[in-house]
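Notes, Module 5: Reading structure tokens.

Key idea: the token line is not a picture. It is a compressed description, and you learn to read it the same way you learned to read a sequence, by spotting repeated patterns. We will look at two proteins. The first is printed below with its tokens.
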Amino acid sequence: MKNYDTLSEAINDLQANDYPYDFNLNPECLECPSLKIEIRPEDFKVDKIYRFEGMSSTDDNSVLYAISSKDGIKGLLVDAYGVYAENISETMRTKLR
């Protein structure tokens, strides 16, 4: 797995090489606004996880998920981790571990 120094570097590289879509995190599913679809936890897998820590503040901690669906849709999900992580269902939390 390739290592990245910054979140933006990782996003740019992964979008250019296999993961063109952006996903949003909902409590029960992932949403792809550009395709206007929702993907349930049983219909996707996490291919890679990258964690980034902020230089000056723990408020800047983030995690980048490279995700692929059963239908072959590949995209990226960016989320905070730690105390600022999104409020999601236990099924989604388990899937994104």
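Here is the second protein, with the sequence above and the tokens below, as before.
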Amino acid sequence: MGLLGILFGLIDTIIALVIVILIVFVVISWLYAFDIVSRRNGAIYAVYEFCRRLTDPILKPLRRLIPPIGGVDLSVLVLLLLLQLLRQLLPWLHGVLTGTGPVL
């Protein structure tokens, strides 16, 4: 496993962390929306704000392209699908760059 393999492993790990942060963000926003958790809960609010601040710069361009449908923000779902697709393409791209995998 050379330097390129380590780099692709790091990229995959970062993408996986972003996916987890997006899922936590969505779950907490649902808990807030259905009034299961109060916004006055300091620990939950701190986690929510952390996730929101990390994901908002990624989601803002998508929110401009994808309007909410029935009040539901689909940009998070689109981003999750795109990130998962990218994770699936990383091994293929690594194989192409190192010459060990098929091109098509």
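Summary for the second protein:
- The CA atoms of residues 20 and 80 lie 10 Å apart.
- Helices lie at 3-33, 42-65, 75-98.
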